[in-house]
Structure formats: structure tokens, C-alpha cells
């Protein structure tokens, strides 16, 4: 058993948690938790997940995961080296062929294209010239009538006498004003243990955006314990997910590292009332009248 695994196991026992309890808290499989305590990191999916799972384990038992990783960094597996991109063979062959092309060969290849373009322009100019000439010759010279000094005025049609009176009597209907969209109100109801409860009164159309700035466990369920996210998991930096909460009365969020998760409801940021890792966020919805 590694020294890091021993410290984590002692903290778990001091909290009174079994591996099954810790599995329910962190959503990490029990065999991975046992592997962390035994120092068996080879069974993990990768070096990144070793560090992420250790941080979640530490947060669940009240320890600082970053400090533990720094103190026991010699026990951590090395990060996987990023694969070096290979240059496409077609690009390499093209660059070599360009370098071998002499200036004279390039000039000889370019000149026929220029001559063909000039020939096409010349043909178009000749066609346009003959088309313009034929259009002008086909229009007859129409004689211009001279003014004989007599002007003819057409009488204006008589308007009905009652038109203006009827227009004045008819009332003008104003368009009905559209109902104003209800304002949203988000308020903190209570904080108890790891759970902060909010109340939301606003539009029935509700969208919750979850944005990660770093690795953190995230899970969301409704009043029927139905998963609302694409799956309880560790979100990574720059990863976002939007939940449609229009049809739910209640949402419960389980957050591993709150400092890496930003919550926005209908464009309104949700401020954390507690600095706990992990913690629960509960929002109860009421539609505005």
C-alpha cells in the first residue's frame, strides 16, 4: 500500500465511510477507489484519471487533493506524451517538387494560360461590339410630334361626398399590447450541511448552463431522481452542457470542485453560498404569474 493511499484510507475510516459509501458520494467505481488505496494505478484508464480520482477521493474525505498530489508526486504515473503530428506525405512531396522547379519552367508553364485569357477577352470584346452595333441600328427613328399649342386636360373623377365624413367617423383600432415577460427572481432559501437550496420564480422556459473551467465531478437529477445530464461524470476544462428545465419542478446538482464549475440559469449567474468540496445545489422552480 502506498503512503498516499494509506492517508486517504485513514481519512475515509475517520469519516466513517465504507468504500460503498464513498462510491455513492464520488460516483467512482469501488474497484478504482480500492486501487487508489492500494497504490495500484495500473488499473486506471489513464494518468489523467488517476489524478482526477485522487482529487475527488480527497475532497470527499475532507483533504486537499492538490496538496496531496504535490506531496506524493513521485507516486503518480507520468502523463502520457502528446502524439507528435506527422506532416502529410503529399505536402512534403509538393514542397520538394516546388523547390526543384526552375524559374524558367514555371514561366513557360504560366505564359500559355496568360495568352489563352487574353484571347478570350479579345473574343468577348468583338462580340460585344457587334451586339451593340446591331442593337443601335435596329431601333427606328420615331418622329417627334410638334406641339400645336392646344392643351387637353382630363377632368378629375368626382370623389364621393361621404368619403371624408365616413373616414372621420370610423375609429382607429390600436394594436393590443403584448404581455410583458415575467421577471426572474433567484433567492437563497437555506444552507444545511453540504446542501444550498435556492428558489426560482420566473418564466416557464428555463435553461441551465454548466461550464467547466477545470476537472470536476458533476451530476444533475430532477424530483424523480432522473438523470438530466448526459451522464454523471468528470467534466473537463472548456466543456459545457445546457439542461432544459422547463418541465421539472426541482433540480439537484452534485458538484465535486465548485471552483471549476460555473452555473448560469437563463443568463443569470448562480453564486455559491458555501466553499465546500463536494457540495449540493438544489433549485426549486415556481412559474411567475
Structural class: alpha+beta
Q: In DSSP terms, counting alpha (H) and pi (I) runs of 4 or more, how many helices?
A: 8
> From N to C, what is the helix and strand string?
HHHHHHHHEEEEEEEEEE
Cα end-to-end separation: 61 Å
Largest sheet: 6 strands, mixed
Explain this structure to me?
This protein is α+β, with helices and mostly antiparallel strands and 289 residues long. Among the domains are: 3-75, Orthogonal Bundle (434 Repressor (Amino-terminal Domain)), CATH 1.10.260; 185-287, no CATH class. Helices cover 37% and strands 20% of the residues. The protein contains eight helices and ten strands. A six-stranded mixed β-sheet has the order 1-2-10-7-4-5, with no helix packed on it. Strands 6-3-8-9 form a four-stranded antiparallel β-sheet, with no helix packed on it. Strand 1 (185-192) and strand 2 form a beta hairpin. The longest helix has 36 residues, at 103-138. Residues 81-85, 87-102 and 142-148 have low confidence and may be disordered. This is Cytoskeletal protein RodZ. InterPro entries: Bact_Cytoskel_RodZ, Cro/C1-type_HTH, Lambda_DNA-bd_dom_sf, RodZ-like_C. It comes from Planomicrobium stackebrandtii. Pfam families: HTH_25, RodZ_C.
In short:
With 289 residues, the chain is of the alpha+beta class. It has helices at residues 3-15, 19-26, 30-38, 47-60, 65-71, 89-100, 103-138, 162-169, and strands at 185-192, 195-202, 207-212, 216-222, 233-235, 240-244, 250-255, 261-265, 268-269, 279-287.
Characteristic terms for this protein:
single chain, 289 residues, alpha+beta, 434 Repressor (Amino-terminal Domain), six-stranded mixed beta sheet, four-stranded antiparallel beta sheet, 10 strands, 20% strand, flat, membrane, Cytoskeletal protein RodZ, Cro/C1-type_HTH
Amino acid at each position: 500500500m502506498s503512503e498516499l493511499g494509506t492517508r486517504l484510507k485513514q481519512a475515509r475510516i475517520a469519516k466513517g465511510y465504507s468504500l460503498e459509501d464513498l462510491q455513492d458520494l464520488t460516483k467512482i467505481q469501488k474497484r478504482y477507489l480500492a486501487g487508489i488505496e492500494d497504490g495500484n494505478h495500473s488499473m486506471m484508464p489513464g494518468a489523467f484519471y488517476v489524478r482526477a480520482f485522487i482529487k475527488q477521493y480527497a475532497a470527499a474525505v475532507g483533504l486537499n487533493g492538490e496538496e496531496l498530489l504535490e506531496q506524493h508526486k513521485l507516486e503518480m504515473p507520468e502523463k502520457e506524451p502528446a502524439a507528435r503530428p506527422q506532416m502529410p506525405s503529399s505536402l512534403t512531396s509538393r514542397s520538394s517538387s516546388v523547390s526543384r522547379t526552375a524559374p524558367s519552367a514555371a514561366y513557360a508553364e504560366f505564359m500559355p494560360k496568360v495568352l489563352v485569357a487574353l484571347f478570350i477577352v479579345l473574343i468577348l470584346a468583338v462580340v460585344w461590339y457587334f451586339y451593340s452595333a446591331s442593337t443601335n441600328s435596329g431601333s427606328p427613328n420615331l418622329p417627334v410630334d410638334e406641339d400645336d399649342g392646344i392643351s387637353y386636360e382630363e377632368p378629375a373623377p368626382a370623389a364621393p361626398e361621404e368619403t371624408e365624413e365616413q373616414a372621420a367617423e370610423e375609429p382607429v383600432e390600436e394594436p393590443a399590447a403584448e404581455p410583458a415577460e415575467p421577471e426572474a427572481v433567484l433567492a437563497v432559501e437555506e444552507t444545511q450541511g453540504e446542501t444550498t437550496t435556492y428558489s426560482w420564480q420566473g418564466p416557464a422556459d428555463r435553461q441551465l448552463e454548466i461550464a467547466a473551467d477545470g476537472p470536476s465531478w458533476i451530476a444533475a437529477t430532477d424530483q424523480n431522481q432522473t438523470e438530466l445530464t448526459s451522464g454523471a461524470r468528470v467534466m473537463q476544462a472548456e466543456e459545457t452542457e445546457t439542461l432544459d428545465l422547463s418541465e421539472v419542478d426541482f433540480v439537484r446538482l452534485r458538484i465535486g470542485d465548485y471552483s471549476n464549475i460555473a452555473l448560469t440559469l437563463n443568463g443569470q449567474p448562480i453564486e455559491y453560498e458555501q466553499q465546500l468540496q463536494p457540495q449540493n445545489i438544489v433549485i426549486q422552480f415556481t412559474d411567475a404569474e
